[in-house]
Design a protein that fits this description.
It contains one helix and two strands, in the order H-E-E. It is an alpha+beta fold. Among the domains are: about 45 residues; about 40 residues, no CATH class. A two-stranded antiparallel ribbon has the order 1-2. A hairpin with a 6-residue loop joins strand 1 and strand 2. The protein starts with a helix and ends with a strand.
Length: about 130
Amino acid sequence: MKRNLLLCAALLYFSVQGVQAQFLKNLKKKAEAAVNKAIDENTTTATKKQPAQQAPAEQTTDAPAPQQPAAAEKSAPLQAYAKYDFIPGQNLIYADNFAGEAVGELPAGWNSNGNGAVTKLNNFSGNWMRMDQ
């Protein structure tokens, strides 16, 4: 009798631990989903264009408000400029024509984690390197 009671108590103890672990895992997933949903909602509301609110301008009767030309309403696309001394084509950094390489194989001396092979193109002469991800 004591043996059966002890066996039932042990089975109950070990079965409850599994349920508790699954409950905590589900609770963790729900918390992550709620956080992701809140982040998504915040990013979508932040990225939506808010209508521009115009502040009331103080105008005096002495000077009329200057009128802007219609061309100023169109804004040019955003462009960035940086000062650098690189001139394309001035210095050759690396060149290989893959002349001695077997077609369909990775060139000798080349290492890649992806797929790559020497190929021939019908529109261009010579061997060319094709790299895949």
